[in-house]
From TrEMBL:
This is N-(5'-phosphoribosyl)anthranilate isomerase. Keywords: Amino-acid biosynthesis, Aromatic amino acid biosynthesis, Isomerase, Tryptophan biosynthesis. One of its GO terms (molecular function) is isomerase activity. Gene3D superfamilies: Aldolase class I. Belongs to the TrpF family. It catalyses: N-(5-phospho-beta-D-ribosyl)anthranilate = 1-(2-carboxyphenylamino)-1-deoxy-D-ribulose 5-phosphate. It is an enzyme of class 5 (isomerase). Its EC number is 5.3.1.24.
Length: 214
């Protein structure tokens, strides 16, 4: 069995980036979205991602970004993927992937099985699908709110792209989530925080240990 991939998302300090790497995270996520408490400006994002070794993924998390924003972030060469967390349609995702030459992850908000099935529309456009909990209408943020969806919806799903699981994961439930879904990658943000946007080194270590034991 291949090793479970672990993404710690919403990192904003060198200390927590270092903790995630020491804990064995395979991917680090950096949010560039001003409405988020985890937002980091482009210069800081680049500085945080730059020293990360090449075997660890460095993912910029964006919501309906402009081409100007994408160009600014991708030109540094510090990123290994762009994660799109807004309402980007497959054509937009494909255009971003072609223009910037960086693998693109597309977050899919899930409430029903139909949402999971809809991810098939991104085959040939995105490189990776991240299933996340659908936030309530009118919510300020599209993710990072600690919400989870019914993981059993993923049982028996025919998935045409590599994928991962996000939304409401934490130290106490990541093993259950992997057992139910068979997810090859788990993505955590609020589940390793002491307050919104404030990552806990101890929780990062504990989550990675729990996930690695799956």
């Amino acid at each position: 069995m291949s090793r479970l991939a672990i993404k710690i998302c919403g990192l904003s300090t060198p200390d927590t980036v270092g903790a995630a790497m020491r804990a064995g995270a395979t991917h680090l996520g950096f949010v560039h979205f001003p409405k988020s408490p985890r937002h980091v400006e482009a210069d800081r994002l680049r500085a945080l991602a730059a020293p990360v070794p090449s075997h660890v993924g460095r993912v910029a998390v964006l919501v309906d970004p402009t081409d100007e924003t994408l160009a600014d972030l991708s030109a540094t060469g510090a990123l290994t993927a762009l994660q799109l967390h807004g309402k980007e349609i497959p054509e937009r995702v494909a255009a971003i992937r072609q223009r910037f030459g960086i693998p693109v992850w597309k977050a899919i908000p899930v409430k029903t099985r139909a949402d999971i099935d809809a991810a098939g529309a991104y085959a040939g456009a995105a490189d990776f699908i991240l299933f996340d909990a659908k936030t309530p209408e009118g919510a300020a943020l599209p993710g990072g709110m600690g919400l989870r969806f019914d993981w059993t919806l993923l049982r028996g799903a025919s998935l045409s792209l590599p994928w991962g699981l996000s939304g409401g994961l934490g130290i106490d439930n990541v093993a259950e989530a992997v057992r139910i879904t068979g997810a090859p990658l788990v993505d955590v943000s609020s589940g390793v925080e002491s307050a919104p946007g404030i990552k806990s080194v101890d929780k990062i270590m504990a989550f990675c240990n729990a996930a690695s034991a799956c």
